[in-house]
Amino acid sequence: MFIGIDVGTSTVKAAAFDTAGTELAVEARQITLSLDEGVVEQDMDEVYAAVVAVLDALTARLPGPVELAGLTGQGDGVWLVDAAGRPVRAAASWMDGRAHALVDRWLADGTFEAVFRRTGGALFPGSPGPLLAWLDRHEPAALDAASAALCCKDMVFGRLTGAPAGTDVSDASMPFLDPRTRAYDDGVVELLGLTHRRALLAPVGDPISTGEARGEGLPAGTRLANGPYDLPACALGAGVRAPGDGLLIVGTCLASLVATTDLDLSGEPAGLYISTDRPGHRLRAMPAMVGTAALDWVLSTTGVAHEEVDALLAATPPGAHGVRVLPYFAPSGERAPFVEPGLRAELSGVSLESTKGDLIRATCEGIGYAARHCLEAAGLTGSLAVCGGGTRSPAWMRLLADVLGRPLRVVEGEVGARGAVLAAAERYGTALDTARWTRPTAVVEPDPARAAHYTAGYAAHLARLATAREHARDHA
Q1: E-strand stretches of 145-186
Q2: d(CA 19, CA 363)
């Protein structure tokens, strides 16, 4: 049996698989996300305790030994640890917006573009560069006390195995890694004013690092591999490897990924190139800030339960009776397929006749338009897989197929955990049938008439977005 561990933004999950890729059991625990006026943080001890708890519960259910385990988790943010691997302060999440003003300044003075032209990564407030620069200005004592600035899975790997601080090429991709050399670009470190903090950047395991569990959560001696982080892990778990093929993750973050062997550092700086364990193969990523989190907010505000979404979508026609949503709900604005830290969500076309169903459908349509924008910018030319919590709604999947105007290969279950196992198996030389492990659970075809309607709706969405971006800049 194999175990995949996925340390998400709001939930920690662990899944067990047999050699054929069948999901045998899953355990999950919610973790706290603290939000306060743009500051978004997580308690590292709580996160680690949740990892141990789900692993204890999962392994107690398994009838036999664990062959190996793979680890993945949320990317970006800053997880400061001391020399013993213990937290220096709360982790700053990838959703954090406190470095908003720094990114604005770098956008204005050319630093933002200079970094993108070197690494292919577009800075956003919750990425490690801006967060480290903010902490250096406002909490230098925290950086002084730290031994390493990690990402989430790296902290967990260190504590499960006792291994020295380290990361992998995928998490290192934003914003300091040169995708050509697969090493940190000290010129980027200097551009962000962090040369004196260079020692905090964790060594890059290339290929991914391995270690043996110390006996917390996993039986002592269990082989464990660290990485890749959740976006590329989901691509592996969904079978997205051929250049041009893509993946849409409808989760807290709305992430669009396209496999590529190209490296184009021209055009509007946005998104990033995620390096993979295969040199020369990358993922062109356009991870929009908010996916299901936008729908969750609307559901909470309107008092609608998740179980009601499919019925409401079925009861409301395409176009939602003129209600429109620009779904940019994140406190730190948007990062893909453009960077606009001051952008905020907009709701329009509402009247006293509008229903809750109109609001729900308009939100789902808006998220679909944002996904189409990201996938086009990422260069999608092949097949498209989709995974994440949004796949639990068949009506939303049909809506997405119509908005995107293409078939969706729906991959359900714990796709990130599955990808973490596949990465671990490859690292340890364990042969698995990848095609069998990554086969879709369903294929959703678009309806031609609705797809034509949404093509016009998408053009109108882009026009409203252009106006909203101008407004955000005018009020920056």
Answers
A1: 148-150, 167-168, 177-178, 183-184
A2: 40
Q: Which two tokens stand for residue 130?
A: 């801006």
Note the pLDDT of residue 383: 97
161 in Cβ contact with 224 (< 8 Å): yes
- Give the residue from 176, 184, 212, 182 showing the smallest Cα distance to 71: 212
Phi and psi at 203, nearest 5°, equal -55, 145
Q: Is 247 exposed, middle or buried (0-12, 13-18, 19+ CB in 10 A)?
A: buried
Task: Find, among 274, 331, 293, the residue nearest to 92 by Cα.
Answer: 331
Residue 101 β-bridge partners: none
Residue 62 CA, chain-centre distance (Å), reads: 29
Q: Give Cα 308 to chain centroid, integer Å.
A: 26
- If one counts every other C-beta atom within 10 angstroms of the C-beta of residue 332, the result is 27
How far lies 197's CA from each of 30, 37, 44, 134, in Å?
A: 33, 27, 22, 12
Kindly give, in sequence order, each residue whose CB lies less than 8 Å from that of residue 281, ignoring residues fewer than 6 positions away. Answer: 241, 259, 260, 261
CATH code, residues 2-205+221-232? 3.30.420.40
CA distance 330 to 289: 6
Q: CA dist 439 to 240, 301, 304, 388, Å?
A: 11, 37, 33, 15
- pTM reported for the whole predicted model: 0.92
* 3-state SS record for 30-48: ECCCEEECCEEEECHHHHH
Q: What local confidence, expressed as pLDDT, does residue 333 receive?
A: 87
Beta pairing, strands 34-36 & 39-42: antiparallel
Backbone angles phi, psi at 399, to 5 degrees: -60, -45
pLDDT along the chain (476 residues), means of 10: 96 97 97 92 98 98 95 97 97 93 94 96 94 98 98 98 97 96 97 98 96 97 97 96 96 93 92 94 94 94 96 96 96 87 94 97 98 97 95 96 98 96 98 96 97 98 97 86
24 Cβ neighbours under 8 A, 6+ residues apart: 1, 15, 16, 17, 18, 62
Q: What is the rounded distance in angstroms from the CA atom of residue 381 to the CA atom of residue 356?
A: 36
**Which pLDDT score, from 0 to 100, does residue 473 have?**
87
